[in-house]
Amino acid sequence: xxxxxxxxxxxxxxxxxxxxxVQCILSAIVACVLVFVFVGRLVDVVGSSMYPTLENxxxxxxxxxxxxxxxxxxxxLQQKSYDEECIIKRVIATEGQTVDIDFDRGVVYVDxxxxxxxxxxxxxxxxxxxxxxxxxxxxxxxxxxxxxxHSTDSRRSTIGFVDTRCIVGxxxxxxxxxxxxxxxxx
Length: 186
What we know:
By secondary structure, the chain is an alpha+beta fold. It has one helix spanning 16-38, and strands at residues 41-44, 59-63, 74-77, 87-94, 98-102, 107-110, 113-114, 134-135, 140-144, 162-163, 167-176, 182-183. It has 1 helix and 12 strands; from the N terminus they run H-E-E-E-E-E-E-E-E-E-E-E-E. The model has no long low-confidence stretch (mean pLDDT 86).
């Protein structure tokens, strides 16, 4: 004959449910921090230098994970010689490439070939401080805004060539406003 044991209820620990909630919230915060530090983060677009590709007030998701800059990439960078704030520009040339601009015709050349730039707002007529044909140094990129005549970029000596270590990340997706959600490479 089997003896049935009485089940003793587990005593409730005071504050146990609260502790579970705090633990869940802290875990979520740690997970978010890890994602934003190692995978991606949100950055505000300020100004019109990337119009029509990006508009003032949009927010983009950027990441530096497995990123090596190449022509056409939209990058967020911090060039302390220009401003403490991050700026967003397009990579036009990488190390070892030659950049030249014909300001009369508004055409940008890389390694002697005219760039096909359907993403620009208008041809490049604004010279800034650009003195002529330049070769991008090792470990650097040459960047320009898509709104060429209203952009402070590598044509200006305060920005100049951008050391790739100053690139915060590559922009991938417009996340806000909701009506503009989608890839930045439309």
